[in-house]
Every structure is written in C-alpha cells, then in structure tokens.
Amino acid sequence: MPLQMTGAPDEPGLLGLPWSTPLEEWPEHLFVALPRGISRHVVRFVRLSGRVYAIKEVNERYARREYRLLRDLTRQDVPAVEPVAVVTGRTDLAGEPLDSGLVTRHLQFSLPYRAVFSGTLRPDTMTRLLDALVVLIARLHLAGFFWGDCSLSNTLFRRDAGAFAAYLVDAETGELHPRISDGQRAQDLDTAHINIYGELLDLEAGGLLHASVDPLATAGEIIRRYQALWDELTRQEVVPEVEWHRVDARVRRLNSLGFDVAEMYMQRKLGAAGRLIVRPKVVDAGHHQRRLLRLTGLDVEENQARRLLNDLDAYRAARPYPRDEEILAHQWLSEIFQPTVQAVPRHLRGKLEPAQLFHEVLDHRWFLSEAAGHDVGLTTAVRSYVGNVLAFKPDEKAVLGEPPE
Questions:
Q1: What pLDDT is stored for residue 57 in this prediction?
Q2: pTM over 0.85
Q3: How far apart, in whole angstroms, are the C-alpha atoms of residue 290 and residue 301?
C-alpha cells in the first residue's frame, strides 16, 4: 500500500517528512522544543514554513477515527485542536509496516497541564484554569461528545487576552452523538474525578502543587462546579422580549458560579418567544475593564465593567440580526447608557460617578422586575431609583473631598 495523506494539508512540506522512519527516530533538527503532555503515543512537534504541527504516531484505525472526530468538533466550534491530515501506508526501509501519523495544527500559546500547574501558580489562578476545564467538558457534552477519558493530560490550556480556555487535544476515546445521555455524562465525570485526582497527586509528589491545594477536595469540587454549570446552561427558559430581567437573572446566576458570559444569543421561531442560550468563559483580573474600554471608551472599575458588559451583551442578544460588536457597542452607548445617565436630574449627578449610577439603576430595575413579575423597563427603573434611592444618597464627590458639580 503506497503512502497516503488524507485531509486538507496547507503545507506541501508535510509530504517531504521522513515517514519511512519511526517518529521517535526522526532527525532532531526537524523538531521544535515545545512542552509536551503525557501521552501513551509518540508525539513530536515539527515546524514547516513558520507553522508548527503536532504529529502523533498511532494505529491507522484510531488515527482516521480521531481525525474525523476532531474535524466534526471543529465544525461545531468546540474548543479542540485543529486536524490537518492522516498519513497512512507507512513502511520502513525494510518494508515493515509503521503506525499512521495524525497531524494537527499546534495551538499557539497553549501549554499542557504540567507546564502550567507549578509551585509558582497562585491558587486562585489554578482555580480559574480548572474552571476552564469544567467549561470545556460542559461544551463537549452540549455538542453530544462523550470524551471517555476526561483528564488534564488530554487538555491544553491557553491564556488569551485575559481569558482562560481549555482545549481538547486527544479525542482517541471519544464518541460523537446527536445528544449525549445522562449515563454517558456520569461516566465522563467519574473518569474525570479519578484522573484529575491522580494527576494532582502526581503534581504534589513532584513538588509542583501549591501547598494549599488538596488534590481530593479539588477533584471533587471540579465535578460539583460542572454539575452547577450544566444545570444553568441546559435549563429550558423561554424569554419574551419584554422580560429581560429574566436574562439578567440568568447572567447573575452564572456570575455567582464564578463564570462570565462569552456569548449570549436567542433562538427564535417565527411568532414565538426566544430561547436564551449562554456560553460561559473564565477570565483573568482586569479582562472586563479592558474589553469595555476597547468597545466604548468607558474607563471604569472591574466589577462595574463586568455589569455594564452584561447589559451590553443582553442588548446584542436582543437584536434580530447579528452585527459587528463595535457597532452595537456604540449603539448601546448612545441609546442605553448615555440616556440613562442624562435622565438623572443634573443636581443629583454628583452623587455617583456615571458607571456606578448605571450599575445601580440596573440593579434597581432587576429588583423592581422581580417583584412585579415582568420587566418594568429602564425608564420606570430610572424614575423609581432617582426618587426612592438616589435622592437620599450623600454626594460621592463631597465624601471624597471634592465639591459636586
């Protein structure tokens, strides 16, 4: 059987690699020194024309199967490494068969868990990284993917613009279904608990785990956080367009679990209310400030930025057609934020800075809507807040030693 390369390789040099030689015997000058995770197979990184590819040597059946799974996951926008090609029909110089090669594109700025989890990693940062793994498992399950071997070893972590993300790197044991069953999810979670506990024990034995981290408690907490996130993500909720306080409540519950909203949108059928879909993410400190400043020019505190971005994302989700994020941010600023601040009588504006004022109006609107059982609207909320709350607050500028405008 002649050498065959199946897939969509974008680099002709892949065909010129020494496929007639076992991967671990390839010349060193071909390899890129990048950290590798623990794998049952030989894995090496190769640079060609400025691009880096990961090559895994594996049985042809599993190579083809994993290639198809990774390709299907990529099409569904699930965080996973991108498959490039499968190389089959390999033989050595004596004509003896060699395992096939699975070629994937190396995920830039990503690291295996052993390179990330070190004694220098702060416990709160480690928690956010583990939360990223929780998000990955939930997203895989939403896509109908049964992992079969949930573990840190089969995951890559990447920090990108303040956000933490986990990516599937090994789909060899996976199965893709139209819908995953509760039994399959339970099996994945049992496997994850055992694997993660063992991997954290391994880090502890090597002196790479922070002394404050309990491997068993941490592994259990990951499973508990997954269950809470799964329940929040899969709750069937029909949201009429006039009841956006329920959207706010959904985001608040997600925030209380420690997650932020990466994407929020509505699934609508003609003549029917929309079904709210939220996609979670895990972010680093300062992420919300940077994003809000980039989109609107508003320079505010982190918690204020988070609250304002939640409202901006809800505003985007309510639009009937998707539009550019920067354009919608400008519309939100001119149609929602600025009119709300300007609706406050001038003599009361010195009591709070604009971002804090808007944040408190949103909170007030939420409480009023919960009590009324429907969205009272921003105009009603501003009027009630000004008359019942803001009028009795001390001037913030005066408290800071500055005369109010």
A1: 94
A2: no
A3: 10
